[in-house]
Every structure is written in structure tokens, then in C-alpha cells.
């Protein structure tokens, strides 16, 4: 399948283009879901959203960023993933903090996000995250026909139906994005 200037093929047939945990998660999906997850190799230097979209002629609205947050309440610290479309901002101190019932919420430090997810920064994806993490999916992501997300590595991207992202284990769909303008 062609999307932008990229050609996508089934991710299950290209495990070398996925982080190990992403490949395992795709492999564990029902066949219909696994066949809907597509992958394309990209220039790893263009993995960041704005550069990727411009170079590969893909709208920012057709991409979703997976943002790792660190929540705290009392002595407890935990992590969650949030999915918002490329041009949107995550409502960290409002909707996300309230939903996670956190006293304090911040973006996870890059080194912690990489270590905890076993994925490369700039390629973190909700597919294959630690099993006990909550995944908060913005409504606009869940409703989008298909979106570009990370693959767990910087050298490729996934093309996935929004509805599939909403069905991931521990995923919850809610309004967590702030739209520009």
C-alpha cells in the first residue's frame, strides 16, 4: 500500500523493521489485526514528526505521536503512553493528569522512556509497550482511518488503523489533545 511517498508492506512479514517488543506484539495479535499493521523503511534521520511528514509528503494530521508520561502520587511513580495526532498537543496538566489520578505528571525523561520501553527515541510506539502500562488514545486518533506511528525503531514507521490503536491492551479512548488555533 502506498501512503505519501512510502510503500508499506505487512509488518508481520518484516520483523527486522520493528523493535523486538513490537514484533512480538504484532505476532500475538489476531490475524485480522496483524494483517492491518503495515510497515515501511524510512531514513532514521527523518524519524521526528515534522521532518518525516515534510519529506515523505504526509500530513501531520495523518500521524500520531506516542508520548510517554511519568505520573506520581505520594511514593508511587508509574508510566503511561499517550497518543495524539501529529499537529495536536497533549493536555498533560489537565485531562491526562486527572485521568491518571496523578498529583504530578511530566514527560518521561528521554533515557527513561528508551530504557523502559526498549524502543528507540523517535520511534516509540504503543504496539509492544510494557503490559501493565495504560495507553491513553485521543478520540481523534481512534476515529482516524489510518495513521503513521513509530515502529519501535527510528528506521521505519507503521501505518495502522486508528480503531486498532483504540483496541490495544490497556488502551482507553478519551479527549486528551489540545488542538492548535
Summarize the structure.
Helix content is 28%, strand content 31%. The protein has 7 helices and 13 strands.
Task: Offer a few descriptive terms.
YbaK/aa-tRNA-synth-assoc-dom, YbaK protein, YbaK/aa-tRNA-synt-asso_dom_sf, signal, 5-stranded mixed sheet, 4-stranded antiparallel sheet, 181 residues, 28% helix, YbaK/aminoacyl-tRNA synthetase-associated domain-containing protein, 7 helices, alpha+beta, aminoacyl-tRNA deacylase activity
Q: Your description of this structure?
A:
The chain has a single domain, classed as YbaK/aminoacyl-tRNA synthetase-associated domain (YbaK protein, Alpha-Beta Complex), CATH 3.90.960. With 181 residues, the chain is α+β, with helices and mostly antiparallel strands. It has a five-stranded mixed sheet. It has a four-stranded antiparallel sheet with strand order 3-4-11-10. The protein is 28% helix and 31% strand. The radius of gyration is 15 Å and the shape is globular. Keywords: Signal.
Amino acid at each position: 500500500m502506498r501512503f505519501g511517498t512510502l510503500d508499506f508492506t505487512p509488518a508481520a512479514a518484516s520483523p527486522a523493521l520493528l523493535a523486538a517488543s513490537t514484533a512480538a506484539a504484532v505476532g500475538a495479535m489476531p490475524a485480522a489485526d496483524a494483517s492491518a499493521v503495515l510497515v515501511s523503511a524510512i531514513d532514521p534521520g527523518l524519524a521526528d514528526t515534522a521532518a518525516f511528514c515534510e519529506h515523505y509528503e504526509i500530513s501531520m494530521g495523518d500521524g500520531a505521536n506516542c508520548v510517554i508520561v511519568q505520573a506520581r502520587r505520594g511514593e508511587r511513580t508509574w508510566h503511561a503512553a499517550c497518543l495524539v495526532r501529529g499537529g495536536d498537543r497533549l493536555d498533560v496538566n489537565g485531562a491526562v493528569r486527572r485521568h491518571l489520578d496523578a498529583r504530578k505528571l511530566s514527560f518521561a525523561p528521554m533515557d527513561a522512556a528508551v530504557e523502559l520501553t526498549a524502543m528507540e527515541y523517535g520511534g516509540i510506539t504503543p504496539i509492544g509497550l510494557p503490559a501493565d502500562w495504560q495507553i491513553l488514545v485521543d478520540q481523534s486518533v481512534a476515529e482516524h482511518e489510518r495513521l503513521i506511528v513509530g515502529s519501535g525503531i527510528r528506521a521505519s514507521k507503521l501505518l495502522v488503523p486508528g480503531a486498532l490503536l483504540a483496541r490495544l491492551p490497556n488502551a482507553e479512548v478519551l479527549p486528551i489533545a489540545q488542538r492548535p488555533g
